[in-house]
Amino acid sequence: MDRVLIVDDDVQLCGLLTERLESEGFTIEVANDGIRGLDRALSMEHSLVVLDLMLPGMTGLDVLRRLRAKSPVPVLILTARGEDIDRILGLEIGADDYVPKPFNPRELIARIRAILRRTSIPANPASPLVVGDLRLDSRAREVWLEDVALNLTSVEFTLLETFLRDAGKILSREQLTEAVLGRKLAPFDRVIDVHVSNIRKKLGTSEHGPRIKAIRGNGYLFVARPEAK
């Protein structure tokens, strides 16, 4: 049974979400301030954290920043409509996805399930995937660039795995959103673009140039290269 931590200072909303999520089979824990939320998120007892950005004691962005320094636990952020800058910053810091308030509980549940499906270990994991100087192990959820282990969030790992399995092929933003986030691409949705940007920074460039190219009007392309000698 998946254990979900909700960090939000709206006590009434937390109560409603707890009731709804428990009816869907989740085990729920609630923290109503940022300090307590960070402490519980760092306990490694949860499959996912639902994190509001507007919190007393410590902002949601600060909670996320400190959490990401120590834990890869998936994080779904809640934002008020119009908080576009904080929303993008949250994704850059390491959130997996976001849901704007007010939201339909069914949408929140769908986003949670999509993230948990993505982060679950496959029953029959494939052999490590090697493309050029990158090696990806889907069971250990680890990636090496030559001999250096990369520190990727769960969504970055899945996104990179998607790119590597289709190296040399243009993937649209719609395809990537469905494959990685488990949902349809919404209008003005920049989530996948921010995650691609984060991965590009972590991969850096090689002597051949960027590893992931933006194809104007089409999507993104992971440039396949011969294996490093």
TrEMBL record:
PROSITE patterns for the chain: OMPR_PHOB, RESPONSE_REGULATORY
UniProt keyword Phosphoprotein present: yes
One example GO MF annotation: transcription cis-regulatory region binding
Keyword Transmembrane: no
Parts of the chain that traverse the membrane: none
SMART domains xref list: REC, Trans_reg_C
4-aspartylphosphate carried by residues: 52
Response regulatory domain: residues covered: 3-116
OmpR/PhoB-type domain location: 126-224
Pfam families from the UniProt entry: Response_reg, Trans_reg_C
Keywords: Cytoplasm, DNA-binding, Phosphoprotein, Transcription, Transcription regulation, Two-component regulatory system
GO biological process: regulation of DNA-templated transcription
Gene3D superfamilies registered for this protein in UniProt: 3.40.50.2300, 6.10.250.690, Winged helix-like DNA-binding domain superfamily/Winged helix DNA-binding domain
Subcellular locations according to the entry: Cytoplasm
Record InterPro entries: CheY-like_superfamily, CpxR-like_REC, OmpR/PhoB-type_DNA-bd, Sig_transdc_resp-reg_C-effctor, Sig_transdc_resp-reg_receiver, WalR-like, WH-like_DNA-bd_sf
GO cellular component: cytosol; protein-DNA complex
DNA-binding annotation, residue ranges on this chain: 126-224
Protein name: Response regulator transcription factor
